[in-house]
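Hi everyone,

Forwarding the result from last night's run.
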Amino acid sequence: MSWIQLLIACLIFSRRTQPLAAADLIGLWLLALRDYDVFHLLDYLALGVGVAAYLALEASSNPGWRRHRLEVLRYGVAIALMWSSLEKFAHPEWFDPLVDEKPFLTLGMPREAFIPMAGVAEFTMGFGLL
C-alpha cells in the first residue's frame, strides 16, 4: 500500500502523469473498501474525488476545463469537512480514545461539550468553503 502512495506522490509532478495519479487515488479508495465500511470512507470519497478531479483538470490542455480545478478541489474539501463533522454528532464515542490520549486538545473543557463544539466548528469551516 505504501508503494502505491509513493507512486501517486511521484506522479503528481508531471502534467502528463497527473491523470494517472488521479486514477490511482480513486483506485486506492476502492481498495480501502475491502477493509473498511463505506460509511467510514465517505469523507475520504469527497476529498479523494476532489483531489483526483483537481489533478485531472490541472493536466487538461483545455483552458475551459482547467479554470474549474480549484473550484472542484474547494468543493471536495468542503464536503469532506462537513461530513467528518457529522461523525462527531452521530458517533461522539469514536473520539474518546483521542481525547483520552491527548486531553490537552479539549482545552480543559469536558469532552461532552468539546466534541460537539468541534463538530460545529468543523461544519462551519466546511460550509464557509462553499
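The chain has a mean pLDDT of 92.

Cheers,
N.
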